[in-house]
Amino acid sequence: MSETPIGEDLADLYDNAPCGYVSLSPNGRIVRINRTLARWLGGDTDSLLGEPFHSLLSFGGKIALETHLAPLLRLQGYVDEIALDLLQADGGKLPMIANAAEKRDSDGGLLSTRLTLFRAIDRRTYERGLVAARSEAEARADSEQEVSVLREQFIAVLGHDLRNPLAAVAAGIGILARNEQLSARGAAVLREMEDSAGRALALIGNVLDFARGRLGQGIPLELDAERPIKPVLEQVVREVQVIAPGRDIQAHIRIETPFLCDPLRLGQLASNLLSNAMTHGDRGKPIVLDARTEADGFVLAVSNGGRPIPEDAQRHLFQPFFRGAIRDRQNGLGLGLFIVSEIAKAHGGTIEVSSTEEETRFTFTMPLGRSATPDAA
Amino acid sequence: MILNRNNVVISGEGERTIMFSHGFGCDQHMWGPVARSFERDFRVVLLDLVGAGRSDLTAYDSQKYATLEGYAADVVEIGETLGLKGAVFVGHSVSAMIGGLATLKAPGMFSDLVMVGPSPRYVDDGDYTGGFSKAQIEELLEFLADNHLGWSAAMAPAIMGNPDRPELGEALTNSFCATDPEIARQFARRTFFADNRADLPRLKVRTLVLQCQEDIIAPETVGEYVHAQVPGSEYVLLDATGHCPNLSAPEKVAAAIRAFV
Fold first, then answer.
1. What ipTM was reported for this prediction?
2. DSSP B201
């Protein structure tokens, strides 16, 4: 196998290479330029000789040459992959990619600077498209974020405005029930109304707590080390028992040391856990609330029997608006456990769930002492 | 803490301290050749402005650094940490003004100020010729957006997360003057839209203005303006071209500073 060596004319390669070549003197003037580059720029090589290289650059490019490229060239001897726009004779701009390197003497002194340039119209257009797309995406994400904060503020305001008139209605129902002579039918209707108003108020309360949590304020606490937690929890158990007279609810409450917490919020936490157990637990099995202080913490656990919670559902239980897939009849928005976890967080505590064939148990623990977030409502 | 924030590097031996601060576009490497020539008889302090070089990028606060005052406050903190008195401050480009502001904040810390290629305002304004128009500065910002100069800082986490793509590490070769592109963009805005003309007549320390020829960033007329506005200042037109004589003609810059201090 024989090959005929093809002679390459190096002078011709320089002049007519498929890229531009230009060499600069130490003070930045063009001392040599190839025909390809001169042609791209719309001039001839002779007219460009002696010109300062920066006269080929847009003003932005000139500043960048002085502030970035020249220092980099001196410091490391080369700069690669610079995007530059070169000015053409007719005033147009030619997008290019350039590599540059210094030719130095043995002492490191600058002899000349050589640049190799490629036309890069498509590539630069593509890159600018990417940059534009990114800033557009960022702007869109910002505005969506804004809208979502507005929406949650709206929910908070609306919830607040609904609650006051509804509370007035509930109070009015209470007065009627206690002070007025009613027919049996009237009393029954009023009881229904009282229940409904109570449920609506509880829902609004949940929505408000949710909105506060989402707006980054967290659940506000009114910390109180004086008010005993035991009567609050007992009251919660009584209320739940009244709603479901047939269910077996057992409470074991043993508080040996008073501690800093928001007793009403912990009551709300217990109430949400008990309601959850009533909704999802087996009706024939007892619900057990166990609350006690230990050496270094307060533990409150609620357990019930029934079908275990699937593992993948356990991961999402504490997210807002999560509702188990199995139930078809639900009252509630799926905020109860989210609010439980927010109250736990606000107290510097944790909420955990375990679920087996024997029992499903939610356990809240918080440290005794100083760790509750001290920002009151 | 403060010294880490600004990547302060101290070398040399001497009673007197000389501090070098870099301009827009690079970092303390700009001063390498000049600073070395002072090491035998000065304590030499080099620093990176926050956002540049190897400064602590987490310390960057776009509020604090919205004006040059924020950078000047950092210079003063460094001076306090090092217990400087009667020291020399050499500032290139935007750092010349930062140094001027620092001498106003902490009288006595610096007794001599060397301004290399200073400009109190880059954009033309009425009778004043800074040499730039707003549109031209927008062009510069566009160039910065187009180029990957110094993207290494921002890209570093991506590279570490891509051990299967070693070409990324190989590709980021412009390791000097590296900076976060967003910070570079903000710094460009602060630098080129700043106006510190009113501060010049208030400068009280001995001041040398070092001017280059054919400097398109800070033309001779601007250097002469600074000289005229700073009371009792000296003016030297260097036999050097371009905006970075500290790299292109370090021995001439060093000789001029030495003759002054």
1. 0.76
2. G
